[in-house]
Amino acid sequence: MRVYIPIIISIMSAHLCSQNLPRNLTVEEQSRLHEIGTNRTITDPPDSIVYTPAEFDSVAGIIFAWEAYSTLLTELIKEVAEEDTAWVVVDNTSEENSVSNTLSNAEVNMDRVVFQVIPTNSVWIRDYGPWWIIEPENSRAIIDLVYNRPRPLDDAYPESAAEYFGINYYGLGLIEAGGNMLLDGQGSVIVSNVIFDGSQGFDPNLTQDQLEQYFLDYFGVHKVIVTPHLINDGTGHIDMFVKLINDTTVIVGEYENQSAGFSGNYDICNQVATQLANETNGAGRPFNIVRMPMPPYNNGITYTYINSLIVNNKVLVPIYGFSTEFANDDSVLALYETLMPGVEAVGFDCNQIIPANGAIHCIAMKVPALPETIACGNLMGDVNLDGRINIYDILKLVDLAAGVIEPELCIMESGDLNNDGIYNYLDVWELTQLVMGFLNA
After folding, report:
1. How far apart are CA 174 and CA 210, in angstroms?
2. Helix locations, 109-255, DSSP H
3. Cα 382 to Cα 251: distance, rounded to the nearest angstrom
4. Would you state the pLDDT for residue 99?
5. Cβ count within 10 A of residue 167
6. Residue 189: C-alpha distances to residues 137, 185, 280 (Å)
7. 375-436: which CATH topology?
8. 212 C-beta neighbours (distance < 10 Å), count
9. Where are the alpha helices (H) located in 340-410, listed in sequence order?
């Protein structure tokens, strides 16, 4: 049985627990880069990966670490707990009691709040938290990256979480931040090239081949797309200006003009949009690129609407009170709802947190829904298992019928519309009629 956190790490890290650490490296941490990855558990990769959940897949709930920005966290937890589970990570039972009172006073649905007493250093759980795979027999397992910060409690959290959930744990030697990877659920991942930058806590000796092998062995991902990163945004993470909202639609940030972003970032956003427009997802289908406004860089702050969080039928979006013709909170929320039919876009004031170089996506980590809750017994025609029936289901069913991709999880039940035990053009025809409204959903 694993020990949650070695005592020595707790002693070394106690002075960090009460600090409001930024998402970026502090000056003090820059002198301790050699501590990154110490006391980590490295394991062999999993024997079999049935599925690696995507950025946009259904979730059982969201994990938050209660280390800073309590007002924003309370609002987010309240929103998530309306319909899903909010796991709240606290350092000790005293903090659990205090946070419970805070959430109760805010009228949070406490029936859906679950506390984990596991010490952490910072609020940025997207970057150090657990990643997930689905193993045979529809069981979740945790994949644990090396956190690119000398914050040992944070780095140890995924192993403790695996113990907490009672599931398999796989630790790999790749130094990476969770905010710098976007999975498409089809076997590809998008990362920025900051992953090769030793000054940001990454491994400067990492090669492209090694990176691809890590993702293949531990995530079952066979395609790694590397883009340039934004300049002077604090982290260089991909989630500050790129977002997958389904397996073929990619949002990429756009500045109004050269002077609106930090020097060079206008061109970098355009370059990445062009790069991804010429790429395909893990199943070989072209990406569709949608541009979303990036608010002007101001006072050393890279503002972003793209650092949002998809929680089933909601998308939680950072807003700042901007109302210019180009960068407008209301128009961005409307754009999300246009791009994601049936999904409610909910805005949260992120003016307090964004100076620390992160927003909503950075402080939340998903717990994926189990496969049977995503597909089996779910909507007939929901072939891509996202809870909606639309053109993307038709495209995936065409690929299944043509043999381009293999069925996964419980898709047979939702894609075999005429119940004949096979996928063919008849299923595609029926699904097309369903999407067009000629049949009842």
Report:
1. 9
2. 125-128, 152-165, 208-219
3. 22
4. 98
5. 15
6. 25, 9, 11
7. Type 1 dockerin domain (1.10.1330)
8. 16
9. 371-374, 391-402
Contact 175, 202 (CB under 8 A): yes
Task: State the Cα–Cα distance between residues 84 and 63, nearest whole angstrom.
Answer: 11
Q: What confidence tens digit (pLDDT) does each residue in 149-172 have?
A: 999 999 999 999 999 999 999 999
What is the mean pLDDT of the segment spanning 170-180?
A: 98
pTM of the model: 0.83
Q: In the chain, what are the domain boundaries?
A: 59-371, 375-436
83 contact partners, CB below 8 Å, separation of at least 6: 112, 312
Please give the CATH architecture assigned to the domain spanning 59-371: 5-stranded Propeller (3.75)
Q: Contact, 241 vs 306, CB < 8 A?
A: yes
On whether the CB atoms of residues 266 and 258 are closer than 8 A, the answer is yes
* Cβ atoms of residues 174 and 143 within 8 Å: no
**Dihedral sign, Cα of residue 338, residue 343, residue 344, residue 347:** negative
